[in-house]
Amino acid sequence: MPTHFQGDLQTVRALSAFINLIRASDSTITKTTAHLEELGVTPGQFAVLEALLHLGPMCQHTLGEKLLRSGGNVTLVVDNLERHGWVRRERQVNDRRMIQIHLTPKGRRLITRVFPEHAKMVVKVMSKLSAAEQEQLRKIARKLGRGAEELCTERMKREKEHDNDQTE
Amino acid sequence: MPTHFQGDLQTVRALSAFINLIRASDSTITKTTAHLEELGVTPGQFAVLEALLHLGPMCQHTLGEKLLRSGGNVTLVVDNLERHGWVRRERQVNDRRMIQIHLTPKGRRLITRVFPEHAKMVVKVMSKLSAAEQEQLRKIARKLGRGAEELCTERMKREKEHDNDQTE
DNA sequence: CTCAAATGGTTCAAGCTTGAACGATTGGAT
DNA sequence: ATCCAATCGTTCAAGCTTGAACCATTTGAG
Asked: I need a surface site. Which of A41, A121, A132, A142 has the fewest CB within 10 A?
């Protein structure tokens, strides 16, 4: 696509980087989650299980922040994980609004077994890049991701202030 | 997440690069497609309209390949675009299996108007990176994307051969 | 204390996404 | 000429994803 767009250098450069970023992300996700299908684990479910394994129990709201997913989405995915008996909900006593999500023993066994396979696939896909390239990618992608997040929060802040201006 | 996983250097490096790639892609997509909502254009629809604008009319199968989407998905998205009157289907006479998708004048006006806004957003998000970083990102992401695609086609080829072995 | 705002979770409608099963069409092998 | 396999599009079930409306709970201002 980008090669067929005529525009100034800055725009072409940004669009080219953008399209290749998206496609790389798309392809690597597809590739590295293919093996989950057979187990009946969806990518969204895997992400939750992995977060719980490596970060410990947490409430749904936190989970949504970590995984960049909406509240409604977390509810659904946790519902499905609960149906499988891989996690359990635990209403907090000190703040009854919150529900902490815990791995069940069954869920822990599953993710402990599946995660190494996943890691192996990631290493395999990434091995198309040299160690130095992987490091560069990590740094640049991190910087870009942070930047985009900031743009979002900045905009939200501006809109909030604007709302306040109007209601005052 | 990656910082909480203990493993060998190679694996940590690959996982770190991977997670940052995914998150960068996620954040930039969210950011650059936010303005489409107001117009009632979904990201999937935008992608199709853009491909048709910059690459010309093409059949659904080609569209799916270009956008890395399944056949069923293309059918649905084109259905929705057709409902809006932004594209039209044209059954090919030389091969009646194929249906070529064309922008309507209305669709062309829409994407011609919307694309520059989109490009502007991409430039804005990407401006968090220097020109050199954008170039590096493009190169590395391209290499990685290509590599992942190859892994997929290789695997499919192996499975195909394996099938043949069994049926012979 | 009281009540309004904020917060956490659920539900819903709409649409995306996939893989599989299916029907129509085509092309090639015999 | 016939028929089988490949190709293209459609349909379907299942699940993901979001934003908005909604309810319960908590917090803080007065």
From this structure: A132
Reported as a pLDDT band with limits 50, 70 and 90, residue A165 is very low
Task: Give the global pTM.
Answer: 0.86
Q: Which of B155, B133, B88, B121 is nearest to A27 (CA)?
A: B155
Residues of the domain holding B90: 2-128
Cα–Cα distance for residue pair A161/A168, rounded to 1 Å: 10
In angstroms, how far is C13 C1' from A128 CA? 43
Which of A68, A115, A151 is the mutation pick for testing B, counting most B CBs within 10 A? Answer: A151
Q: What is the pLDDT of residue B36?
A: 86
Q: Does residue B121 sit in the same domain as residue B142?
A: no
- Check CB contact of A62 with chain B, cutoff 8 Å: no
Q: pLDDT tens for residues B10-19? A: 999 999 999 9
- Which among A6, A3, A41, A7 is positioned nearest to A20, based on CA atoms? A3
User: A60 and A23: one domain?
Assistant: yes
Question: DSSP character for A121?
Answer: H
Number of domains in chain B: 2
